[in-house]
């Protein structure tokens, strides 16, 4: 991406003077009991700008606002997957699932479950059932289509097969029914809890989102996932050895008779770890055939496990020089450079914000990447990013596809931070701009704010044809990425189309003449009405962008 920080001017700050529209939530909840509480609760269920996934998928405030509007208009009773409510619930469920995976082996390995574990498991099962229910009311992000799906029918279909059956059966409180319903002949029902292992991918997904929110490295996340799978395997293998031991030796074995269930559990865990790590064979006394089979399985699993551990260590070492770490190294170098130059804190903060927005915490060289692709692929990428924006311009409509492609290839990316002046009223312009991501404010030459422009909008198109001063100033409100089309590149692109060139020029001249006439008329009206709060002439110029 190209940058033009050397051209950028700044203002003291954007203090919006436009009348603020009521928040969307107030249009849908505008009366009744506990109105403020209901608004806060509804906002809690909607997309949150603080969610890192919102920033990755919906990169600007305009897109987030559109998502809020879509949610309220079409899917009012659904929970957004990027909401604060969903984040909070997933953090709770991380604790719940961890507790379940720790408690369940102990419960499966004993004939009579202690009361404390029984009631704890019952509460955890209730949370699991609530999690199952919430899946039907929570949208999801479809990776293939890169869209947030909120339609109830689609959400229902995505969850009902095959996850719902396993999740529901594993969450039923069988032990409460067995113990308090005197249904000991159904003791084997508790083995349905093994289906809870199908929740492990859900737990890993929740942990992934939590790590993203906590700004952890990707390779650290994979390490956490591997450690989770490893500990789960060890702990459940421990429970299996206890079950096998009590089954082969009868209910009156030493382990089942021992009041302290913790000691035999730790002994079994010790034997399992030794076997899996290929340190020694298990010495638990069971049936000889079963013992041999168990040791054979441990050798096979342990061999694979040791290879996986080695591969994981090598992967962590390799990822140490990944794009994320290159980004951190770049930040460190920039920080050292600015300290050496003794730059003030305000400039340091702006530099860090610029780098973070430009690279999104990953280092990549767009030019090098595009150069490795074929010409056709590069054109496809550019058309995907910019074609719709270019075709919005009035005097670009109806142009042949070949010319649109030539114009798109001339666009250059630039990044502006909040309060950067992108164009200045009264200064002769030589380029137009397309807003890819971000929001800008438009001011008249008299510094009167008239409107905001957001994703997909454009401004300064007359400067491509006519060497005239700008009629308005444009200031960035948020971090903005814009595409700049210079007059020189534009004239070069349309050079093979002389007829179109004259038509575009005539259209631009007519547009400029109308704008000047409206501005002249507006000046006369201002003399009659001093309290007028907007400049209709310039607003007319930008009407298609509001």
Automatic annotation (TrEMBL):
Keywords: Membrane, Transmembrane, Transmembrane helix
Gene Ontology cellular-component terms listed: HCN channel complex
Gene Ontology process terms (BP): regulation of membrane depolarization; sodium ion transmembrane transport
Alphabetical list of Pfam families matching this protein: cNMP_binding (PF00027)
InterPro entries assigned: cNMP-bd_dom, cNMP-bd_dom_sf, K/Na_HCN_channel, RmlC-like_jellyroll
Bilayer-spanning residue ranges: 87-106, 118-141, 223-245, 292-317
Entry GO MF terms: voltage-gated potassium channel activity
Domain called Cyclic nucleotide-binding: residue spans: 395-511
Keyword tRNA processing (UniProt): no
Region annotation Disordered: where it falls in the sequence: 518-546
GTP-binding is among the record's keywords: no
Bias (Basic and acidic residues) ranges: 522-546
Protein name: Cyclic nucleotide-binding domain-containing protein
Organism: Zophobas morio
């Amino acid at each position: 991406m190209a940058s033009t920080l050397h051209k950028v001017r700044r203002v003291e700050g954007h203090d919006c003077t436009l009348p603020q529209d009521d928040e969307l939530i107030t249009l849908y909840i505008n009366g009744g009991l506990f109105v403020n509480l209901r608004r806060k609760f509804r906002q809690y269920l909607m997309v949150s700008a603080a969610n890192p996934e919102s920033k990755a998928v919906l990169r600007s405030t305009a897109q987030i606002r559109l998502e809020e509007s879509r949610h309220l208009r079409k899917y009012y009773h659904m929970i957004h997957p990027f909401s604060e409510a969903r984040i909070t619930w997933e953090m709770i469920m991380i604790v719940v699932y961890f507790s379940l995976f720790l408690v369940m082996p102990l419960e499966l390995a004993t004939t009579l479950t202690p009361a404390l574990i029984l009631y704890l498991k019952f509460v955890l099962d209730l949370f699991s059932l609530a999690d199952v229910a919430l899946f039907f009311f929570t949208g999801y992000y479809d990776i293939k289509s890169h869209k947030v799906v909120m339609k109830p029918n689609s959400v229902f279909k995505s969850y009902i097969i095959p996850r719902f059956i396993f999740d529901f059966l594993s969450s039923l409180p069988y032990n409460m029914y067995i113990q308090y319903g005197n249904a000991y002949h159904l003791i084997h029902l508790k083995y349905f809890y093994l289906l809870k292992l199908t929740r492990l991918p859900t737990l890993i997904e929740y942990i992934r989102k939590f790590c993203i929110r906590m700004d952890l490295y990707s390779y650290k996340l994979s390490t956490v996932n591997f450690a989770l799978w490893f500990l789960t395997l060890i702990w459940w293998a421990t429970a299996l050895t206890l079950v096998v031991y009590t089954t082969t030796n009868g209910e009156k074995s030493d382990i089942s008779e021992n009041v302290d269930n913790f000691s035999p559990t730790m002994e079994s865990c010790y034997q399992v770890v030794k076997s899996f790590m290929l340190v020694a064979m298990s010495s638990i006394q069971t049936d000889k055939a079963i013992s041999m089979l168990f040791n054979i399985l441990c050798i096979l699993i342990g061999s694979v496990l040791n290879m996986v551990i080695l591969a994981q260590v090598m992967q962590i070492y390799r990822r140490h020089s990944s794009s994320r770490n290159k980004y951190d190294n770049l930040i460190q170098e920039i920080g050292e450079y600015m300290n050496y130059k003794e730059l003030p804190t305000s400039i340091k903060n702006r530099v860090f914000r610029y780098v973070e927005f430009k690279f999104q915490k990953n280092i990549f060289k767009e030019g090098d990447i595009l150069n490795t692709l074929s010409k056709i692929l590069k054109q496809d990428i550019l058309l995907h990013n910019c074609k719709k924006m270019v075709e919005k311009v009035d005097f670009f409509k109806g142009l042949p596809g070949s010319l649109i492609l030539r114009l798109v290839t001339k666009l250059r990316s630039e990044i502006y931070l909040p309060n950067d002046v992108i164009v200045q009223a009264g200064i002769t312009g030589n380029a137009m701009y397309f807003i890819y991501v971000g929001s800008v404010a438009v001011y008249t030459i008299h510094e009167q704010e008239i409107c905001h422009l957001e994703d997909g909008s454009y401004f300064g198109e007359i400067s491509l044809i006519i060497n005239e001063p700008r009629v308005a100033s444009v200031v960035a409100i948020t971090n903005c990425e814009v595409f700049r089309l210079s007059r020189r590149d534009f004239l070069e692109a349309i050079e093979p189309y002389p007829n179109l060139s004259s038509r575009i020029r005539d259209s631009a001249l007519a547009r400029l003449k109308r704008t000047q006439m409206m501005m002249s008329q507006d000046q006369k009206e201002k003399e009659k009405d001093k309290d007028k709060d907007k400049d209709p002439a310039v607003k007319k110029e930008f009407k298609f962008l509001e």
